[in-house]
Amino acid sequence: MSGKLKAGTAIIAAYLLLAVLSPILVNPNDIENWHYATYWEGNPKLAPPEWVNIFGKSLPPTENLREEKPGEYVYNFHYDQPPQDILIIPPANWSGDVTVSAKTPDGKEVVLYSGLVSGPTFIGKSLYTMLQAAKELGVPEDTATSLVMGGNGIEILFERRDNGRWVPVHGTYTFTVNSSVHVKLRVVGRVYGPLGTDLYGRDISVIFFAGLPETLVIVFATAFLTVFLGALIGIFGALSGKAGRLVEGFGKVSSMLPLVPAMILLVPILGGVSYYGAIKVSIWPIVLALSLLLFGKVSQNVRTITMTELSKEHILASKAAGASEVWILRRHVLRTVLPYVSSQFVLTSAKVIALISILGFFGVSFGFNWGELFTMVVTQRAIYNGAWWMILPVGVAITLLAVALILIKREIEKKFTNSQGAL
């Protein structure tokens, strides 16, 4: 086994292993609630991965504050930027009055929130109390109003104006919560998890890891069905008369259809719109549709290979000796067709990967796979918003998978060429 074949096989094996482990890596509730914005409201919006801090940044992670004693929470702030917000998390199905006050490292005490809480509540978006806190902290009213209305009110607590610019106030912050029930405080930071979050705070690692198994199923099932149909119809078209020509005609039609426009048209027809506004399609109709659109060129090439093989002298001699078409097919034709079909399986897999990506960029996704991630990149304007973490991981992963498939394909073609030369 050559080095290229070993490398390609190792990469494919790693992807398959990761697909098997994905149920362990991802919380099933995250998948079930993927389209519900309220489920993710405790996460930062458009936050890069936590590992960006390794490269010189110092951004606060998202964390639940530890309770030093009943009703008192401590936060050690030593970052370059303040968190996005602080979230009050009451017990489920509870409603009541809550007061949250804070003592800053420079000795100032302010009330951050005072009022009714009936669910997760962001402190920084409480206009009245944050403006009062800003006044006590010496922040001008117009500046404070602009920050609060822009959703950045919590910056008032963690930064001070110094020589015309905002600088962070590092140290230990103590938060005191007055409530009739136990209430949690969660710092909504500026980095999150291994792959960051999207515009709604959804964890990108969920769609990346949980979407891998379905992506691989679509890719390899489509490739298998495509080459199976292509080989079957190509051989049948070469061996038979009118019926074969008729079947081969379907292959020609398939090869002429524009793939991407056809899939954009078929996805809404094959599926339906769910109550959360996403197109929901079973993967098997998609696999069948893709295979019917892709098998045409494979069948034409298989037909050409088969007809070339059948015209050789030793095949004609076998026919003259009374050999049946089935015997000729099994002993001679399949030996020539199978290497080509194997290479086309690998090539078609790479094509399907590219197609899933392209359809995602057109806003067409189906199921819970990497196509959904590419759709998010477009609909959430990830490039415009600088959310490189929504593009880079899946882009690298797809490129690596495609490279592995191409390495395997080239080795198959090389062995096929060598065996043909030996003959």
UniProtKB/TrEMBL annotation:
Compartments, record wording: Cell membrane
Instruction: Tell me the membrane topology, using the record's own terms.
Output: Multi-pass membrane protein
The record's Gene Ontology cellular component field reads: plasma membrane
Keyword Zinc-finger attached: no
Task: Kindly give the Pfam families that the UniProt entry links to this protein.
Answer: BPD_transp_1
Origin: domain of life: Archaea
Q: Which GO terms describe its biological process?
A: transmembrane transport
| Keywords on record | Cell membrane, Membrane, Transmembrane, Transmembrane helix, Transport
Residue ranges constituting the ABC transmembrane type-1 domain according to the UniProt record: 212-409
Identify the PROSITE patterns for this entry: ABC_TM1
Protein name in the entry: ABC-type dipeptide/oligopeptide/nickel transport systems, permease components
Organism equals Thermococcus nautili
